[in-house]
Amino acid sequence: MTTEIPPTQGVLLAGGLARRMGGGDKPMRTIGGRTILERVIARLEPQCDGLILNANGDPARFAAFGLPVIADDVPDFPGPLAGILAALDWTAANQPGIAWVLSAAADCPFLPRDLVARLHSARAKENAELAVAASDGQSHPVIGLWRVDLREALRHALTVEDVRKIDRWTARYRLATVAWPTDPVDPFFNANTVEDIAEAERLAALDAA
To answer: Terminus of the chain with fewer CB atoms < 10 Å: N or C?
Structure first.
């Protein structure tokens, strides 16, 4: 990591139920001969000071990837905020010198290689408390930077206020939004359906060009 970028722990959010694919783990689907999760790890590993995987259920199914697997802190699948909270708690306990966590959806195979650098740059420039990614006029709040010292505020929002949507929580803070171009590939394309997998195969060829 360069000295301009604060140490940043990465968390790959794979806690979803994949209902639109008939269940199972979306990140384990294959694109161009590699699992989506392999592609996500390859994109983020050089940018972060370690990666963890947020997933519920039996962690052994991800053993081949060699990452710590953490489950949601809050029961009943309350959404990605629970995975972010789990990552903040894990980082506070295991990496006390790290003040920032980058979250990313584990089903986004084309994440930008400058994701962490640009989010931190915008956050610092705008004196923001949080930062999220955007493309094509749309914010992607699952992909963002989170301060570890906000974890108790997030826990209260989740468990007491029943806040489930990320943008409801981020609205309470100074937020930097960083947009990426979508040519030739939207870096935040995510594979939600069987049709998306077919489209991702086509995009993988463009992304490698």
So the answer is: C
Is residue 204 one of the residues assigned to a domain? yes
20 in any annotated domain:
yes
Residue 116 burial by Cβ neighbours in a 10 Å radius (0-12, 13-18, 19+) = buried
For the domain that residue 15 is a member of, what is the CATH number?
A: 3.90.550.10
In a domain, 111, yes or no: yes
Count of the separate structural domains present in the chain: 1
pLDDT tens figures, 14-64? 975 444 334 457 888 888 889 999 999 999 999 999 999 999 989 999 999
| 94 or 16: which leads in pLDDT | 94
Q: What is the pTM of this model?
A: 0.91
Q: How far from 108 is each of 39, 89, 96, 99, 170, CA to CA, in Å?
A: 8, 24, 28, 24, 21
